């Protein structure tokens, strides 16, 4: 119920903020600048177009829209409006949303750091610090922990690319990677909580979830790229994953399983922190200085959630 209410609030808030691209002055500005600067008969425009903009796939038309967007935003009084469903951000070297890119790379580094740590094998040359984070090669969940790192790294790579340049292809890769991360988290939870050590059962469960994921990708790709539908599906599976871990810890608490209670609270910290960060996604606000918006701050906050989660799964191993 809470998730649905937050979804409705977030959807309504974003709907109120849209409409900058419908302003007559913006439309006139775009039409005039495209006609003046992007004529196929004008070679000087192509020659003067900065290399870094061409490298990040900005077209002359895109550049005109960008300049008109900021010109209109400069001349209008608050509130700041969205253009084509996006807030106006100041780009940097062709990077469309610099803050989100930097914070996405921060998340990428966190998962890469723990992947390197987990891959260390325990031997006499291993430092004492790394030895505390080693996972036995015989532990049945070790390949899936490594898989978790890799899936998340891919997600943050795609996020960095998407926020560098918002294009249909980069948007799809970003959304599909995020959905894969959530579904893989559900898979990971099922295998660990129910102690699924049999390879056939692991493959069977994974196949079911993979079919569900491919069906989602197919729908979004060929039927309707629906943002609300995607948010609902991802939200449902995120809640399922979190609820599974909460129930797992609750059962251990009721049974007074001291071996789990000694470290299991870390999963509650991770889930709770992650739930709090999602509020930044729901309650959107215009970018501060046209640089920092709620979405970029969400990316920043998730950097600090990863250590909580990895501390838990390493202790759990």
What do you see in this structure?
- The longest helix is centred in the C-terminal third of the chain and has 28 residues, at 227-254.
- Helix 2 packs antiparallel against helix 5 and helix 8 (142-164) runs antiparallel to helix 9 (168-193).
- This protein is mainly α and 317 residues long.
- Helices cover 72% and strands 0% of the residues.
- Mean pLDDT is 87; it is low at 12-17.
Secondary-structure blueprint:
Elements: H1 2-17, H2 24-37, H3 43-48, H4 51-55, H5 60-75, H6 98-119, H7 128-131, H8 142-164, H9 168-193, H10 199-223, H11 227-254, H12 258-261, H13 265-282, H14 294-302, H15 306-316
Helix pairs in contact: 1-11, 2-5, 6-8, 6-14, 6-15, 8-9, 9-10, 9-11, 11-13, 13-14, 13-15
């Amino acid at each position: 119920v809470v998730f649905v209410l937050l979804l409705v609030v977030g959807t309504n808030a974003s709907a109120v903020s849209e409409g900058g691209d419908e302003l007559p002055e913006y439309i006139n500005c775009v039409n005039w600048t495209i006609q003046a600067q992007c004529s196929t008969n004008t070679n000087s425009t192509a020659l003067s177009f900065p290399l870094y903009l061409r490298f990040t796939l900005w077209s002359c038309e895109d550049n005109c829209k960008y300049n008109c967007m900021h010109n209109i935003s400069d001349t209008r009084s608050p509130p700041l409006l969205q253009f084509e469903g996006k807030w106006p951000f100041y780009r940097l070297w062709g990077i469309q949303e610099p803050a989100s890119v930097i914070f996405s790379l921060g998340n990428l580094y966190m998962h890469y750091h723990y992947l390197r740590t987990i891959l260390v094998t325990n031997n006499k040359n291993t430092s004492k610090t790394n030895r505390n984070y080693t996972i036995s090669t015989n532990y049945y969940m070790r390949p899936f922990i490594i898989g978790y790192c890799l899936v998340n790294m891919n997600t943050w790579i795609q996020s960095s690319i998407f926020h560098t340049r918002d294009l249909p292809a980069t948007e799809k890769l970003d959304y599909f990677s995020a959905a894969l991360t959530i579904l893989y988290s559900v898979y990971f939870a099922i295998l660990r909580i129910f102690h699924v050590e049999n390879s056939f059962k692991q493959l069977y469960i994974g196949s079911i979830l993979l079919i569900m994921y491919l069906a989602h990708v197919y729908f979004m790709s060929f039927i309707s790229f629906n943002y609300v539908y995607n948010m609902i599906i991802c939200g449902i599976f995120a809640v399922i994953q979190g609820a599974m871990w909460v129930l797992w810890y609750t059962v251990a608490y009721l049974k007074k399983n001291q071996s789990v209670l000694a470290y299991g609270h870390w999963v509650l910290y991770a889930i709770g922190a992650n739930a709090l960060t999602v509020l930044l996604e729901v309650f959107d606000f215009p970018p501060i200085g046209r640089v920092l918006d709620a979405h970029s701050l969400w990316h920043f906050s998730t950097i600090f959630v990863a250590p909580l989660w990895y501390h838990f799964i390493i202790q759990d191993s």
